[in-house]
Write a sequence for this structure.
């Protein structure tokens, strides 16, 4: 049975013994293993049922370590690091040979971030290796934002989840790479808003669809098992569809109709960051409920709303 605890020493011991441990971060929980130990990393892919062609993020706690794993840090990357590390920003940079091919799926770049969660920072400081960690969910499912979500996904497959409480941001890190001119390219929308990043980077280049290299960019991802339909006007939809039992995912509005059997309001006070931190937990609750269909509304398309709309769109595919 899986252990749920705050015991950082126990987590460190398991990781040194080539085991996989779920760890808290400020974005979502990760499924972590010694990034320099190919066999341990292989277990992550097996547990997640993730294709080996999808590369992993390397997590560090100390800026000094960055240079052990990458050959070059463009000036703009330095500015972004200064502004956002430790934090929810993953950078894709040219890798050193110290990084095993299994982490990068054989590419010559590595995705790396300095995470920001007190327990996992303490854990990393005890280890003499970085942690490879994808989100701690089965491939294409909704990412976990609480220790209990990880337990529900992997009750027998892993030995321990380090319980760091609810994740502060609630969706994955933003991922940025650099083109040959050193300009910043956004690979994945995430828990830093585009506005926040652009204050430092200037205008971001949006990664083109035909250049899909991150599964976060796959059309279908972050998916509940039930059908999720995104609608512009929930009120109108309810007037036209009175038969089916439905669940509703809304930003700040409480809807009334006889066929609503469950409703999750992401932020009653209309705060986009609060809505983001509640999004995945709300999606999981609706997925477990009795309704046949989840009806979701788009969030205001600004700041974190843009990242959430990206996740909702993929969840509806
Ligand atoms: O917030 C997060 O980023 C969480 C926490 C645990 O840190 N991790 C996470 O990992 O979301 P994962 O594996 O679910 O998503 C990592 C993304 C994938 O879309 C992967 O393709 C992309 O990072 N990625 C990894 N290495 C890459 C590389 N060299 N070039 C481009 N994308 C890369
Ligand atoms: Mg993931």
């Amino acid at each position: 049975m899986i252990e749920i605890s705050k015991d950082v020493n126990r987590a460190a011991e398991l990781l040194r013994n080539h085991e996989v441990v779920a760890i808290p971060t400020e974005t979502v929980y990760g499924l972590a293993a010694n990034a320099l130990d190919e066999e341990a990393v292989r277990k992550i892919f097996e547990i997640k049922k993730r294709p080996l062609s999808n590369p992993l993020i390397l997590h560090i706690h100390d800026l000094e370590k960055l240079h052990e794993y990458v050959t070059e840090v463009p000036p703009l990357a330095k500015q972004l690091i200064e502004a956002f590390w430790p934090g929810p920003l993953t950078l894709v940079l040219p890798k050193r040979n110290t990084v095993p091919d299994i982490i990068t799926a054989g590419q010559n770049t590595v995705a790396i971030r300095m995470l920001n969660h007190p327990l996992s920072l303490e854990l990393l400081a005890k280890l003499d290796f970085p942690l490879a960690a994808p989100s701690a969910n089965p491939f294409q499912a909704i990412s976990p934002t609480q220790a209990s979500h990880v337990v529900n996904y992997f009750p027998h497959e892993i030995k321990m989840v380090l319980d760091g409480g609810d994740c502060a941001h609630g969706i994955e890190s933003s991922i940025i790479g650099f083109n040959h001119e050193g300009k910043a390219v956004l690979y994945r929308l995430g828990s830093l808003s585009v506005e926040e990043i652009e204050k430092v980077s200037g205008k971001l280049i949006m990664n083109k669809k035909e250049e899909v290299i991150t599964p976060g960019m796959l059309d279908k991802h972050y998916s509940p098992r039930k059908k999720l339909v995104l609608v512009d006007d929930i009120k109108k939809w309810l007037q036209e569809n009175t038969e089916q039992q439905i669940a509703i995912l809304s930003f700040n509005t409480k809807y009334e109709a006889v066929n609503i059997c469950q409703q999750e309001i992401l932020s009653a006070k209309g705060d986009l960051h609060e809505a983001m931190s509640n999004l995945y937990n709300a999606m999981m609750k609706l997925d477990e409920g009795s309704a046949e269909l989840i009806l979701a509304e788009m969030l205001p398309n600004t700041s974190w709303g843009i990242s959430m709309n990206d996740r909702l769109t993929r969840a509806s595919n």
Remarks:
- Residues 134-135, 143 surround magnesium ion (ligand 2) (CB under 6 Å).
- The domain at 3-206 is CATH 3.90.870.10 (DHBP synthase).
